[in-house]
Structures are given as C-alpha cells and as structure tokens.
Specification:
Subcellular location: Cell membrane
Largest sheet: 2 strands, antiparallel
Number of strands: 2
Distance between the termini: 74 Å
Family: Belongs to the cytochrome c oxidase subunit 3 family.
Helix content: over 70%
Pfam families: COX3 (PF00510)
Membrane topology: Multi-pass membrane protein
Domain Heme-copper oxidase subunit III family profile: 31-207
Structural class: mainly alpha
Length: 208
Amino acid sequence: MAQSNVSGQAYPPESHSEHHAHPDMEEMRTFGFWIYLMTDVILFGTFFATYIVLRGNTNGGPGPAELFEIGGVIASTFILLTSSYTCGLALLAMNRGKRQALIGWLGITVLLGAIFIGLEINEFIHLVHEGATMGSSAFLSAFYTLVGTHGLHVLVGLVWMVGVMIQLSRKGITPVTKRKVNVISLFWHFLDVVWIFVFTVVYLMGVS
C-alpha cells in the first residue's frame, strides 16, 4: 500500500526484498557453482573411464611402469595436499575476520599450486624427450588428456585465487568476497580429490 506525506503526495511502497536481494544472489551464485562442479565430475569421470580402457594400448611402446617416476609424483601429491590444508587455514582466517592472514594463506596456497604445475610440466617435458608424445599411443593420448585437464584446472584455480586476493586487498572481507573465497576453496578441494584418484589410478596402478 502506498504511503503519503502531509501534502497528500503518494510515495511508492518500500521494497522489503531489497535487503535480502544481495544474500539471495550470493546463494544463487554458489548454487550455480555446484552445478558447474557436477559437470566437472562427469568430465573427469569420462576421462578416467577412457584412460582405464586405453591404458593397455601402448602401440608396442613403453607402458606406465617404464615411463612413470613415482618419486616425483609422490612429491607433487604431497605439495598439492599441503596446499589444500593451507586453503583450509585461509577459510579459518576469513571466519575470524583476519584479512591479512586470509590473504597470506591464499598466497601460500598459490605458491604450492604453482610448484605443483611446475613439476607436472617438467614431467611432461621429460616424457616428450623420451619420445612418449601424445600421438605415440592411445595410452599416452588418454594419459595426457586426463592429467593435462587436471593441470589446466589447477592453473585456472591459481589465476582465480590471485584475483580473489586482489579483491580482498581492495575491498576487505565482505559478503561477496566471502562467497568467492568459499567457492574457490571448494574448487581447490575438489581438484585435490580428483588428483588422489589420478595418483591412484594412473600412477600407483601403473607402476604396480
């Protein structure tokens, strides 16, 4: 119902939804990210299934046992899992309202993720020098596709996390930046879970 002032001029009714519009939008964006994450689950599930089917098709070339150096992969796994821990510490700092600690832990997470990417690129370069290119066999095509897609996701996560850090330094901890930190944290933990499957299915089963 419209309100009026003393002179009888009508004012439009106040919109009580304006106060709740922002939190509702943040919840919708988070829900949208969950939908995206489900599509990523399907994507990686398809790549895992393809790799399992094709891992024996080496075209007469070397297989996983001859190519993979498990020591370096274990180091990469430890680094990525540690980055998941530091990402969790960033969330704790955010919930306590400590902006500098939040940015600091995110920075350490980015550093660890960058080291992981560096080790993965070094592994790919070593394999190529050994003649194990993506076109050498169906096994290597499936390997590069699966592991490379995960690495690309990690790289996107790093760029995303740096962007969130810049927003935190400029705007502080707000409902918007909180949602963004929660989302990138969820994405990062998801990548860690995927890597555990990669480590088990591709590397451990490959060298056993």
